[in-house]
Design brief:
Layout: E1 5-13, H1 24-33, E2 38-44, H2 48-51, E3 56-58, E4 61-69, E5 78-81, H3 93-102, E6 106-109, E7 136-141, H4 142-152, H5 155-160, H6 171-183, E8 187-191, E9 198-201, E10 204-207, H7 211-214, E11 218-224, H8 232-244, E12 248-252, E13 262-267, E14 270-272, E15 277-279, E16 284-300, E17 303-316, E18 321-329, E19 332-337, E20 340-343
The structure holds zinc ion (ZN) (2 copies).
Length: about 350
Amino acid sequence: MSDWYEYIGVAHIHSTDSDGGKPVSDIIKIGQELGLDFLLFYDHMTLNSLHLGLEGWYGNTFVLIGYEINDQKNENHYLALGVNEVLPGEYSAPEYVRGIKQKGGLGIIAHPDETRETPKFPPYPWNAWDIEEFDGIEIWNQMSEWMEGIAHANRYRLFTAPRRFLTGPTSKTLKIWDERNKQRKVCGISGVDAHAHPFRFGPFKLVIFPYKVQFQSLRVHLILDQPLSQDKSTAKIQIIDAIRGCHLFISNYRQGEAKGFSFLAKSGEQRYRVGDSISLSADVSFSVHAPQKCKIRLLCDGKVVEEEKGKTLEYSVSEPGNYRVEAYQGKKGWIFSNHIRVVNSL
Ligand SMILES: [Zn+2]
Ligand SMILES: [Zn+2]
């Protein structure tokens, strides 16, 4: 993948600025130890650490600080990045989605289809789908999937091997995401939703998801056309633009290191990365490469058009549509890419 630069990080982290278990500075150290390129913090309704000047480079790890918004009923959670002020707490979802956009921020719908059956931890789904001004959807949220599991699965396994539980984004969320992309570019991203609180389970009290464990699960792989700048405001713009432009795929590290995975389109000598648009000419083809053997699926507008077991998939394109890739290890979701759009004419 010589034309582009891959940066791997973790999104949707909570700290003691709201209901997380450790201060931002301690969490950054954990990210650095794991070799993560970037960390995206989203505490509830506060930009405290941004105002303390904690955004920027820490060795090779870049830290960005946004915040998680909710409405007065604590519904419609929304992840905002690239803004300097917290919007008024009485705003409704349409008001804050538009407010973040007006301020030039990046807005992601958090855990959109949570359906928890745990009364103590109610679900926080998204129910304001008639708004258009958001940039992306958190298609895979580790906490949501795990909490849903509590109602159904073997609890002992859930608590002793929390990451083993992750199987992939729900088909409902993927459908909403694919449908939205027929109208316009909407990014799909993952979130660990890391809080690291102690959790009471019968007589036991334990931290189910220490940050170190969380950071070895759902990861965001940005595909940039330039290396990240050492200048912090430039690097911040590069990361936000890459997310807004859908130049990313997500992976579950538990199923294997996905670094080096690529999904690109070719037309003559030209190469296009994930998130790009390309006009349908005589010789458009896709090339998928995975770093390990897996089941690779190519989808067009949500429907599987090609499936291959191995490390590569090649496909010649004859129809316009929004194409994306899913890779599985057995039944477990491993990699989910954003779309490459093939249009009749640009
Ligand atoms: Zn939330
Ligand atoms: Zn959260």
